[in-house]
Amino acid sequence: MMKSLTLPVLFSLIFTVADQLSAGEMDKAIVIDEEGSSIHDTLSPYADFRFRYEADWDSVNSSGVPRDDRHRLRVRGRVGIKYEPTDTLTFDVRARTGDSHSQQSPHLTIHDFNDGDRNDFSGILDKYYFQYAENGVTFWGGRNGFPFWKQNELFWDDDATITGAALSVVPDGWDEAVTATVGAFYLPDGGWELNGQMYAGQVKYTRSFGELKLTAAEGFYFIDGSSGASHLRNGNGGRDYAILGNQVELQHDIFGIPVAVGADVYCNFKNYSGTSPNAFTAANADEDMGYVFSTKFGSLKDPGDFQFGYYYAWLETFSVNASYAQDDWVRWGSATQTDSSDLKGHEFRLTYRAAKQLDIMARLYAVDAITSQQDGMRFRIDFNYKF
Asked: How far is it, in rounded angstroms, from Cα 326 to Cα 339?
């Protein structure tokens, strides 16, 4: 009861403060000293809002039974406050909408054109952390986003925030060409609960060759599963993973148009048994490889800019932990948990920067399962506004 009452009040308060700050109404508020330092200098409210139309059609489940077509209107709201008392220290708290049983999705259904269920208002605090950054060293502790470099969400969903600590170091003399990051985290089980741990490290390398920019990263992610998850499906919370992730991206302007080409390869080195007592694990014991190819044309620097993106993914069942990967490509799973692996397919994406604070993004997905008959088509158009 306390959570459901507090979050709407928090959303309302931060939206109000953000609006007042942007309008300059609080410039005179809470002057700390005679030289004019104010809380406005160190307190930074922020917020964003998404309105989405989503259509799912031409889909069958794992048994080959057709699913009903679905057309929905959905929304997402996020509000937060950053406090920076010094140049090196930051505190950040953020709340988001979304069913509290889901660690993957911040969206609420406000209308279903096929008479499906709507969501009551609910949300969680998905970030609360402090960060210290100085002389090439960054450390944070608390609940925060995935700290390792990635070029898409097919391995880890941006909304699946993790609780623990991370340390990033840029070695002296490397001028940010090399960044090493390590961390230890508790993993989310729904919006509020925790289940299992992850210990991970990554080295990222960036270098320019004339006008060609290379970014490459290699990371290892060990997930120490724990039984008793309340929301995670298919034993994902209790299963161990040992995933090696490799990413590479090349960027170059072609005829004045920014172009990026990327690839990701994931391999889970954990050996699962075909006689495992977990039936899902036994049935998918050898499904441990995944890869993604992507390309983007254009940029979104200024109003009026367009960007086109294309992604091809092949993700076997245990190449990623499906409870923490993206929830965009498929409607497989449950109302609050997406089964985000055992898939192959395509994403086509077109984004238009309509204004400095407004992006309009259209995405089309055509996806099939690797080991079953599941498939589906999905279209989304998002209106994303930052305050």
From this structure: 9
Q: How far apart, in Å, are the Cα atoms of 168 and each of 5, 71, 135, 140, 217?
A: 37, 43, 11, 9, 14
CATH (domain of 206): 2.40.160.10
* Distance separating alpha carbons of residues 77 and 110, to the nearest angstrom: 13
pTM of the model as a whole: 0.89
Backbone angles phi, psi at 175, to 5 degrees: 50, 45
How far lies 95's CA from each of 78, 124, 240, 302, in Å?
6, 6, 30, 28
Q: How confident is the model at residue 92 (pLDDT cuts 50, 70, 90)?
A: very high
| Contact assessment for residue 319 and residue 242, using Cβ atoms and an 8 Å cutoff | no
**Contact of 314 with 154, CB cutoff 8 Å:** no
Q: Which two tokens stand for residue 356?
A: 């400095």
pLDDT digits (tens, 9 = 90+) for 324-333: 999 999 999 9
**Full residue range of the structural domain in which residue 382 is found:** 2-386
Phi-psi region of 237 (alpha: psi -120 to 50; beta: other; left: phi over 0): alpha
Report d(CA 43, CA 33) in Å as an integer. 16
Give the number of domains in the chain. Answer: 1
Q: What is the 8-class DSSP label of residue 40?
A: G
Q: What is the dihedral angle through the alpha carbons of 105, 110, 113, 114, rounded to the nearest 10 degrees?
A: 60
Place of tokens 């090439």: 136
Is the pLDDT at 262 greater than 80, yes or no? yes
Query: Residue 90's beta-bridge partner residues?
Result: 131
Backbone angles phi and psi of 260, in degrees to 5: -130, 135
64 by DSSP, 3-state: which?
Answer: coil
Separation of alpha carbons 143 and 301, rounded Å: 30
Pairing of the two strands 162-169 and 137-144: antiparallel
